[in-house]
From TrEMBL:
Active site: D245 (proton acceptor)
Gene3D superfamilies linked to this entry: 3.30.420.40
Gene giving rise to this polypeptide: xylB
Enzyme's top EC category: transferase
Record has Isomerase as a keyword: no
Provenance organism: Streptomyces laculatispora
Protein name (Swiss-Prot/TrEMBL): Xylulose kinase
Amino acid sequence: MPPHTVVIGVDSSTQSTKAAFVDIATGRLLAVGRAPHVVTGEAGARETDPEVWWRALRDAVAAGLKESGVPAEAVTGIAVAGQQHGLVVLGADGSPLRPALLWNDTRSAPQAAALTAALGGADAWTARTGSVPVAAMTASKWMWLRENEPATAAAATAIRLPHDFLTERLSGVAVTDPGDASGTCWYSTATGAYDPELLELLSIEPASLPEVASSGAARIGSLTAGAAGALGLPAGIAVAAGTGDNMSAAVGLGLGGAGLLDHPVLSLGTSGTVFAASRTRPASPALSGFAAADGTYLPLACTLNCTLAVDKVAALLGLDRADAAPGGEAVLLPYLDGERTPDLPTASGLLTGLRHDTTPQQLLGAAYEGAVFTVLRALDELLRACGLDPEDPEVAARPLLLIGGGARGHQWVETVRRLSGRPVTVPAGGELVAMGAAALAASAVTGRDPVAIATGWQTGEDPQLAAVERDLATWARIGSVLDRASQPLLGADRPRA
Ligand SMILES: Nc1ncnc2c1ncn2[C@@H]1O[C@H](COP(=O)(O)OP(=O)(O)O)[C@@H](O)[C@H]1O
Ligand SMILES: O=C(CO)[C@@H](O)[C@H](O)COP(=O)(O)O
């Protein structure tokens, strides 16, 4: 292999780090190194020590180097895509002061409600930032920290998102990108900058935040000698700004200004997300109105309970996750971690419709259906946010691009087909977040547009699974249970134990 041909795209998501080694010229995926994370916490808490991410990045790169057989000197660039929203606070020596509060930590729900009210309601927030500060947003987590651990908040000299933290470890540069910054609720998608009034409301010193790289500025620095030593890579190679994991998946799929716009994606991982890249700036309180990595926008809806919740139900039933059948009359809303869409941060799971002849396989199927229904229900609002009419036959015929770990599972794919009634495409290459990060790294090396690079790699182009008849009876049954379930039944009126 000629030198200078390989980039590394890092996906540092909730459960693990994946490092994709990609040939720049062809987009060929040479190897994926993997390393797990540790998530701790009960009763709404979800935390990971940022040092765990750094060690996992190091291990994943080492595994990828070994698996690919690529000589380290052939690697010319690296970029990190990270789980969104997490709050990382650093002390004066640059070390984390405490574990990061993750996107799915719901303890910040009261602070989210207070922030929403402080600005006069949800619409005021979406007009400024694109999103409402639900518990997931970094602003709510920062306020939780100030109220619950004031000494730690006072000692914080730097506030970072997970991908910023890792990018700074690689390059020594304190930088973020518009995509991940738009998940903080202190960055304005209307102005493309931090919102000074919101920083004041949150008592955040602007100097404690990373600079926001402009969407076009792909290379933000070089791999430092220290990081190069830790990773076994050459010092001085290009480091890109990186982005949030969903934004990176959009790049990996070739979605954005230089590619496909207003095309729906469904991601099934720890979170369930639906999103699209669009030129229309989203401002719907029902969605998160993020910026994309390439200067377009990324309207998105996110659920807290997806693959982990269904795997938990399978474990409770003593079944393999593949051993499921359509749920029949049973409806299971698997809100084991509370929920974000709909905004029920203290909710718990709900099971109805049990009969003598209900089988364990049907109960597991009902968990798949509840998880898929919850994220798919936001699809029409997503399409409207893109300026489309969901009833338009051409729009309804656009295939769902299905990604994330769940897309590898037959039950997930079939449940999505049945409940959406849409054609579905599952990109065969997989690891779209890491591939998007690789395209960002390749952009830092070559100066080309990352979406155009990924489009050339053809990462999202695979045969479609035809639409099947939509299971409207199941759709209506789950919708009716969710709409009629009283807040007390979902546990949504109780503080967590
Ligand atoms: N073959 C499979 N069938 C069904 N689910 C799978 C399969 N492989 C992985 N998963 C699911 O994928 C999830 C991890 O997905 P991933 O997108 O990597 O998560 P995250 O990005 O949140 O860390 C696991 O929780 C697991 O349930
Ligand atoms: O909070 C969101 C999106 O707003 C999540 O999608 C996180 O970005 C975590 O993603 P995964 O680890 O599930 O991929």
